[in-house]
Design brief:
Elements: E1 25-34, E2 39-48, E3 58-64, H1 72-85, E4 88-92, H2 104-116, H3 118-135, E5 139-149, H4 151-161, E6 168-172, E7 194-200, H5 208-220, E8 224-230, H6 246-264
Length: 271
């Protein structure tokens, strides 16, 4: 009796699970200079390798650091943006090359001149970082976002407030004090960027009045805005060295990626 041959049925295309290609990430330090006061700055740039993304411009994200300067937090977020979203990420250096605080007191000393001069010194350094991002060859200059943590969250909102071509601004546990040269939001032009504010409901650093005021400001400026308050999350909920809250960290990051996908499209975001 002849043996029965085993005949394999070809799999339908929909049944074939393609192997996920792990993105190849390039990263580097990037020196630039504030020529007004001759300060050497050193940013951190991270982008997907050309072999894993189409040969066309990709969105860029400016990452603004917390009051201690560029640290592991900001660098890891840059890597995540390149890996998960397929975007270029540039962490801007606001303080100067090598200037990093090692204690709360040192961080506050570094922050002080920028907090006191938001309309000149801080704005100038933010504009320099933004230009460095736009100068990256693969960056789509029409698809620029800015995100920031703590002090950097204030920076992200400040760039949205002055309408410099940023399409998305995201603040993670940032402060909300208005710009001193914009005392009456009702008289200002509408904010062009889509704004996402991710706030910790248990953040004792931010008075409730500040939360109400920034929402009133967004309404007055006719912004496309969201304010998400994460229950039980304290100040610094994305930072594993401070008031880390894993749930709030993950949920706020997903909220940001969802906004990126909505406004920019993407090469790698899959949800």
């Amino acid at each position: 009796m002849p043996k029965k041959k085993n005949v394999s049925t070809p799999k339908k295309e929909a049944d074939v699970v393609q192997e996920k290609i792990e993105p190849i990430i390039n990263e580097d330090r990037y020196e630039y200079t504030d020529e007004i006061d001759n300060t050497l700055l050193e940013g951190f740039v991270c982008l997907p390798d050309h072999r894993t993304v189409p040969n066309e411009p990709i969105p860029g994200v400016l990452v603004c650091h917390a009051f201690g300067g560029i640290r592991n937090l900001e660098e890891e977020k840059c890597r995540e943006l390149a890996k998960v979203a397929g975007y270029i990420a540039f962490a801007a250096d606001l303080y100067g090359k090598g200037k990093r605080g090692q204690s709360f007191e040192e961080n506050m000393a570094l922050l002080k001149p920028f907090r006191e001069d938001r309309t000149n010194l801080l704005r100038r350094r933010l504009f320099l970082g933004l230009q460095c991002l736009r100068d990256q060859m693969a960056c789509d200059k029409e698809k620029i976002a800015v995100i920031g943590f703590c002090f950097g969250g204030l920076c992200a909102l400040d760039l949205a407030r002055v309408n410099v071509g940023v399409k998305i601004a995201v603040s993670f546990h940032g402060t909300f004090t208005p710009l001193p040269d914009q005392p009456d939001p009702e008289k200002e032009k509408p904010i062009e960027a889509s704004v996402l504010i991710c706030h910790g409901d248990a953040d004792t650093h931010i008075p409730h009045e500040q939360c109400m005021n920034v929402m009133a400001e967004m309404r007055a400026r006719k912004a496309d805005w969201q304010f998400i308050s994460y229950g039980n999350a304290k100040h610094g909920f994305t930072d594993k060295g401070v008031g880390y809250n894993e749930q709030a960290d993950k949920r706020s990051w997903m909220a940001m990626l969802a906004l990126f996908k909505e406004k920019f499209g993407n090469t790698l975001i899959t949800f």
